[in-house]
Amino acid sequence: MVQKYQSPVRVYKYPFELVMAAYEKRFPTCPLIPVFLGSEILGEWRSADGAVHTVERSCRLRVDAPRLLRKIAGVEHVVFVQRNVLNWRERTLLIDAHNETFSSRVTVKESCRYTVHPENEDWTCFEQSASLDVRSFFGFESTLEKIAMKQYTANVKRGKEVIEHYLSELISQGTSHIPRWTPAPVREEDARSQAMHRCPSPTETDGPSDVPGPDPEMAIADGDKLDADYIERCLGHLTPMQESCLVQLRHWLQETHKGKIPKDEHILRFLRARDFHLEKARDMLCQSLSWRKQHQVDHLLQTWQPPAPLQEFYAGGWHYQDIDGRPLYILRLGQMDTKGLMKAVGEEALLQHVLSVNEEGQKRCEGNTRQFGRPISSWTCLLDLEGLNMRHLWRPGVKALLRMIEVVEDNYPETLGRLLIVRAPRVFPVLWTLVSPFINENTRRKFLIYSGSNYQGPGGLVDYLDKAVIPDFLGGESVCNVPEGGLVPKSLYLTEEEQEQADQLRQWSETYHAASVFHGTPHEVAMEIPEGESVITWDFDILRGDVVFSLYHVKQAPKLGLQEPGARTSGQLIDKNWVLGADYSRVEAPLICREGQSIQGSHVTQLPGIYLLQWQIHSPSESVACSLPGVGDVLTALHSPGPKSKLLYYCEVLASEDFRGSMSSLESCTSRFSQLSATTSSSSSGQSHSGSVVSR
């Protein structure tokens, strides 16, 4: 497996020319870098006007590894070839390095560059990236990877310290300014002479064909980049490898994610939740982004209005902050009639309210970060359990609680900084036994539990909250405006019919997915078929506008990728560079679906691979054969005031032996919409079955 490193942008608040003078002090040897044993110049070239200076060096590095490994490898140092291209005119230094030692077994590449800060020409930016590919190493491949990455990241921080040391040394010696390069007049005879020693062209300076160049996958495009000072100031202290994971995941999202890019604090939470394992964090974040899009969570704070019973009887609310500056949320669960609230508003409304609390918490963390001038990415919850009894262990209520915990754990990781549980009664261990298996171990470590009056005095709340913030109902000085809860009157309970409708809505929300389709921006769902003989079934309702539904088979997976057989991703997945008939093919004739129609259908697959279900806007003037948006379509979509079409859909992959070969097989999809249809018409052709119902 190839290990990669990508640094954030590091800024030296000194001019480029002065930084270059400090950089040159590292050669031919550098006592400040113990592993750097020395270097020698292999070749040197200059352009005719002296603006470009290229140097190729051989550098020897001491092997900082266990003696046994050095003895097996038979070396005490390794050799790297470094090629520097210094352009005084453009004020850039590009550095490419690769290993010469063990190059047949191990490939190490590094690319660095010094450039002028885009917003301040008297500052200098530095970036570096590297990759390590251990193909074979005497059976110690994994050990070598760990040692190499550990040593590399340790030297990353050291490298900046060395440059800063030499900058200070230059300034102390009286060199605080170096004039910028200007072209000097060149006499004709000098020009002819220098032409013989000119700087080679790009193709000539690439060196021998066996010398690897910079890895294109390691390059980060110019534009919105992470600054190391910004990370330290707004996100907190990170190790070099943690910084690298953040930079790589953020860049991957910018390249592949077609929706709103999450904020850096949000991305960092998912990395922390997966101990900075890049692949695991990426998978978790992708699933969460899909969930947010499906449930329109980004607009929740603007659209959610709690029902009256929640506003009056939900005993929770925000209350200043703890001693670390984290927003403080107080929940008086023991005083809350959870059974009554569920009967009055339903489980779905309770979940929406919990999600709105989490969204508000993230917003408050950002505000506190600005207010206190230090990174604050989580909040504290004070949970008062006085009054907790067997009524709170009502089975449907506990089931709903477990569902909420699961949703929050999956989509708001590392947002809880501390949970202070006070006045825990005897029944609490029963509740804890039920819910603790569903709580992440990292989250459980943040729980502090106080029974009785143990929360008072040293070691209690005063260790985490200022005395002026401790609420009055816990003996503090602060008047708390959180609702006191109480029993919900039965007159506010939902009727059986309303409860049935709420349950049906919840079941639909769990089964069906909502999608919005814009001009030039189709909605596509990718489904992986692990074997040739399977059946794809679909069931969808057109809620607004007219769409064209198509089914494609693609030769390569979309950029977002699929995680396991049968898994799915959604959004706009067909690459704009793909060609219909070459990169992907249509396996179902386009079907025009009108507003208000309910469509059910199926397709028997003949080939394994990726199948795409696509919905795009239907326009009478446009040909349905064209599925990829043009520039005009995209501009139209960007300036469109809102969705042009909306739908609810469900799709499923069945094994061929489980499919009965008729529309009745769609019962396996647990379709609710088909039950609302008064009439059904179906048509079949070859290996597909489709039907539509008009219900206006």
TrEMBL record:
- Domain GOLD, by residue range, is 509-653
- InterPro entries named among the record's database cross-references: CRAL-TRIO_dom, CRAL-TRIO_dom_sf, CRAL/TRIO_N_dom, CRAL/TRIO_N_dom_sf, GOLD_dom, GOLD_dom_sf, PRELI/MSF1_dom, SEC14/CRAL-TRIO_domain
Q: Which Pfam families match?
A: CRAL_TRIO, CRAL_TRIO_N, PRELI
- A GO CC term assigned to this protein in UniProt: cytoplasm
Annotated SMART domains: CRAL_TRIO_N, SEC14
Lineage: superkingdom: Eukaryota
Identify the stretch(es) annotated as Disordered: 192-217
Which residues does the UniProt record annotate as the domain CRAL-TRIO? 306-482
Q: Where is the PRELI/MSF1 domain?
A: 3-175
Residue ranges annotated as transmembrane are: none
**Name of the featured protein:** SEC14-like protein 5
Q: Which organism is it from?
A: Mesocricetus auratus (Golden hamster)
Please state the gene responsible for encoding this protein: Sec14l5
